[in-house]
Amino acid sequence: MGPDVDLLVVGGGPVGLVTALRAADAGLAVTVVEPRRGPVDKACGEGLMPAALDRLGQVGVDPDGHDLAGIVYTDGRHRVRAPLTRPGRGVRRTVLHAALLEAAEHAGVQVRHTRMVGIEPGDARDRARPARVRTADGQALTAAFVVAADGLHSPTRRALGLERPARPGARRFGLRAHYAVAPWSDGVEVHWSRDAEAYVTPVADDLVGVALLSRPPGRFDAGWTDFPALAGRLAGSEPVSAVRGAGPLRQRVRSTVSGRVLLVGDAAGYVDALTGEGLTLGTAQAFAAVDAVLAGTPLAYARRAPALGRRSTLLTRSLLAASGQRTVRRLVVPAAARVPALYRGAVRQLADGR
Fold first, then answer.
1. Do residues 68 and 87 touch, judged by C-beta distance below 8 A?
2. Is the CB of residue 67 less than 8 Å from the CB of residue 186?
3. Which domains does the chain have, with CATH numbers?
4. What is the pLDDT of residues 246-258, one digit of tens each?
5. For residue 21, is pLDDT > 90?
């Protein structure tokens, strides 16, 4: 007797649903395990780069939002802009999640609203030993393969012993809310201060998302005293959505595969939100994981996964190293302004998912 499903996806967020849609489109029977119902709001930069939009289109999803034409770095004295070669899009996470849920329903993806409480990874080389997942509603499912897309603090990663201890150092956290103001820029603005970065993403004609990245967790209010230019733009406005938080952001993994279980998205390890490549990398991992599942070679994904985000990871680590030292941090934006071609090239690679 074969497994209950071809693919079981643990986690029904955007990356998990992209995985499910890609697999369903290839003819696999897919079940998603996700305890929460409906669109879920979480801390997210909400900027979709062109490569992420391309992959969403390939699974039949085209979410509403606000076009993005570039990425701007500014520290109040210097300002440097990198245009995107193709438009990106600012999209509220709830809007994106709702569009993906609707597409999953139309594709026949089964979503079970429960949580994973136990997992056996099975044997990557033995088809007679599938993965086994126990859920909180008392059910046990066998799956030819499992893809875990259950987030930054992935229970699946922890249960399989795939976590690596965090390196010593200051931990970074993110906070995000929305302001009912018309976008004043045609792209994402990244404001640098002495200790933090603030990301402003247009998500509608009358709404911007503002995310704060700092160590330790910063204070999120309308004052924005460390960002005077941003404070001026938001003067008189109050957040119109709840402040959402995430962190610590740095997560390390021993491997992205255990038996017949593959990790994607934030569950597969995370460096930082500094370069905003989360969904670009997550959707690339989702596609690569489904390729490995279709080929029956999960270990091929383990070999391929590190290369998917190598350039963005190196850039993120370099920026983090620089931003961790105040004397160096204050030179980041001026350096980008002095060598704009280098900055634009780095943004182009991130946007195109190279």
1. yes
2. yes
3. 5-64+90-167+250-318 (3.50.50.60)
4. 888 778 899 999 9
5. yes
